[in-house]
Amino acid sequence: MATLDVKSRAPETTEMACLLLDRELIAQIKLIENATGQSGMLSEFVRRLEGSLAAFGAALPDYIARGDTAGAVLAAHTLKGICLQLGALELGDLFADIERSVQADDYAEAKRAFEGGADLIAQSLEALKHA
Fold first, then answer.
1. Are 101 and 110 in contact (CB under 8 A)?
2. Residue 90's domain spans which residues?
3. What residues form DSSP beta bridges with 21?
4. Which of 44, 54, 112, 116 has its CA 20 to 30 Å from the CA of residue 61?
């Protein structure tokens, strides 16, 4: 079984997180955590985001099948906002692209963008979990 050399991967992981996340927004959330005494807020937000992303992945084909532009736009717009508020800027940009595609009735492009963004989604979630 292969082993993972954590020390050699840490700079890459840190570098990736810096590219994916707005550290200032993360720091503001942590400041609110400290000021309110509610530790774990960021972790809870990330957990909810993870659930919302999974739900979107399951719902997108249904939106497309029904031609439910309003539902798809609302879901993509909501995820865009959540991502941007949590500092996951590239992930927010992905959902902005998906939102624009749906608004243009280009469901195929919206689906391609979401499926093509799987690595970005996974990397962003991982970076948020370790922020």
1. yes
2. 40-129
3. 88
4. 44
pTM as predicted: 0.84
DSSP assignment string, 11-26: HHHHHHHHHHB-HHHH
Residue 19 falls within a domain, yes or no? no
Q: How far apart are CA 71 and CA 75, in angstroms?
A: 6
Over the stretch 28-60, which tens digit does the pLDDT of each residue have? 999 999 999 999 999 999 999 999 999 999 999
* Ramachandran area for residue 38 (φ above 0: left; ψ -120 to 50: alpha; else beta): beta
Q: What is the CATH number of the domain that holds 81?
A: 1.20.120
Domain count, the chain: 1
- Whether 6 shows a pLDDT value over 60: the answer reads no
pLDDT greater than 60 at residue 11 = no
- Asked whether residue 4 is domain-assigned, the answer is no
Q: Which residues contact 1 (CB under 8 A, 6 or more apart)?
A: none
